């Protein structure tokens, strides 16, 4: 069972535990021993998802949007967590872009959707602020006929 994630990167710290629990509940009984989580490993939803997949003894596959992603987009306060999760990935695929921008993010999301059976969306239901945001990925997944499970527990919020 291959499950991808899309979601907000600007979750509040208080939102992460209930979001993790909601994801845990969705994944707990899915394909024990063969769970593969596919993520772009962005701060927030992607990293919460990766941690839950690893906790449930699943494998994490990472799709990085561009070669400069770590240097350009991973902030110092998130670097240790990003590096730890990246080091635990069973595979890392870097998209053929030099620069992390909206085109690279969109291509990474499309690549993610190409290789999963369903999607978990950590999403507040609002439209995307720019091209390739969570709402756009949800729409693209639905257009492909992929099941989408929206996770936004009571009290969840964005910074």
What's the helix and strand layout?
Elements: E1 2-7, H1 16-27, E2 36-39, H2 45-55, E3 59-64, H3 69-73, H4 79-87, E4 91-94, H5 102-114, E5 118-122, H6 134-143, E6 148-151
Parallel strand pairs: 1-2, 1-5, 2-3, 3-4, 5-6
Q: What report would you give on this structure?
A:
The chain has 159 residues and is α/β, with parallel strands linked by helices. It has helices at residues 16-27, 45-55, 69-73, 79-87, 102-114, 134-143, and strands at 2-7, 36-39, 59-64, 91-94, 118-122, 148-151. The protein has a 6-stranded parallel beta sheet with strand order 4-3-2-1-5-6, sandwiched between helices. Helix 1 packs across helix 2 (45-55).
Would you kindly provide a brief summary of this structure?
The protein is 38% helix and 18% strand.
Largest β-sheet summary: 6 strands, parallel
Characterize the overall form. globular
**What is the CA-atom radius of gyration, in angstroms?**
14 Å
Strand order of the largest sheet: 4-3-2-1-5-6
N-C termini distance = 32 Å
Structural class: alpha/beta
Q: What level of helicity do the residues show?
A: 25-40%
List low-confidence stretches: none
Task: Please provide the ordered H/E string of secondary-structure elements.
Answer: EHEHEHHEHEHE
Give the number of helices: 6
């Amino acid at each position: 069972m291959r499950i991808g994630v899309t979601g907000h990167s600007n979750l509040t710290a208080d939102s992460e535990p209930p979001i993790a629990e909601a994801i845990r509940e969705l994944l707990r009984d899915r394909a024990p021993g063969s769970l593969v989580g596919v993520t772009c490993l962005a701060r927030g939803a992607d990293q919460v998802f990766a941690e839950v997949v690893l906790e449930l003894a699943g494998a994490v596959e990472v799709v990085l949007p561009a070669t400069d992603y770590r240097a350009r987009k991973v902030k110092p306060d998130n670097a240790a967590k990003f590096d730890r999760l990246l080091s635990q990935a069973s595979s890392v695929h870097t998209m053929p872009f030099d620069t992390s921008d909206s085109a690279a993010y969109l291509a990474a999301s499309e690549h993610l959707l190409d290789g999963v059976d369903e999607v978990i969306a950590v999403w507040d239901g609002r439209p995307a602020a720019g091209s390739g945001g969570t709402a756009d990925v949800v729409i693209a997944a639905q257009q492909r006929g992929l099941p989408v499970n929206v996770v936004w527990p009571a009290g969840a919020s964005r910074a």
